[in-house]
Amino acid sequence: MHLHKNIPIGAGLGGGSADGAFMIKLLNEKFKLDMSVEEMGALAGKLGSDCPFFIKNEPVFVEGTGNEFSIIDFSLKGKWLVLIMPKIHVSTAQAYGGITPSTPDSNLKHNLESLGLSGLQSVVKNDFEASVFKQFLALVEIKEALLKAGATYASMSGSGSSIFGVFESKPDFSSACPFQIFQL
Fold first, then answer.
1. Inside any domain, residue 123
2. Number of neighbouring beta carbons within 10 Å of residue 64
3. Could you say which of 71, 94, 111 is where a domain stops?
4. Distance from first CA to last CA of the chain, Å, rounded?
5. Which residues form the GHMP kinase N-terminal domain (predicted)?
6. Which of 10, 22, 138, 140 matches a 20 to 30 Å C-alpha distance to 126?
7. Structure confidence at residue 183 (pLDDT)
8. In total, how many domains does the chain have?
9. What is the pLDDT of residue 177?
10. Range of the domain at 26
11. SS3 assignment, position 135
């Protein structure tokens, strides 16, 4: 079996983890293994700490080392996603080395469920941005451009380097702009 990865390496999008998790789901279905979601999640956890997240494939709040899930009431259905993958490689090791574990200023799960998309920009932060943005100013400029263009929320994905913006309606960018736009 050959699995071809279309998501760029180093994008911070969890492409490899998603591929591994969906392969487990495919094998479970194809060979009628009758594994439960919990069993597939445990197996996925052996591939990587964020792999079990992709077994459920629904909005969940993740805690612990990526192994504790609770379903949340959060949907991006009907929104538009702009994804920018600059030709910048962010070392995952450097990204993790640049953050200091801390207690969040607010309850993230509560914010996701109660504030709605428009209220998240001021309270939901990617901890990697502070250190990664110091090294790569172009990423700051991309995020700011998305917000200026009307994104309701914009952030770096994971440890970088992709930046995404979520829009209420289809954004109107010039044809010269190399953004990928998806409706959710």
1. yes
2. 8
3. 71
4. 30
5. 1-55
6. 22
7. 66
8. 2
9. 56
10. 15-71
11. helix
For the chain, 184 residues long, give each residue's pLDDT as a single digit of tens.
787 777 777 778 888 889 999 999 999 999 999 999 999 999 999 998 889 989 988 888 888 777 788 999 989 999 999 999 998 989 888 898 999 888 888 898 999 899 988 899 999 989 999 999 999 999 999 999 999 999 999 999 988 899 999 999 998 876 545 565 666 6
Instruction: Read off the DSSP letter of residue 97.
Output: H
Residue 10 resides in a domain:
no
Amino acid in position 174: S
Q: CATH no. for residue 170?
A: 3.30.70.890
Alpha-carbon distance of 164 to 85, in angstroms, equals 9
Rounded to the nearest 5 degrees, what angle is found at the Cα of 119, between the Cα atoms of 116 and 121? 120
Cα–Cα distance measured from residue 98 to residue 100, given in angstroms and rounded to the nearest whole number: 7
CA distance 61 to 53: 9
Same domain, 137 and 55: no
45 and 51 in contact (C-beta within 8 Å)?
yes
The answer to whether residue 19 is domain-embedded is: yes
The total number of residues written for the chain in this structure: 184
Radius of gyration of the chain (CA): 17
* Shared domain check, 131 and 174: yes
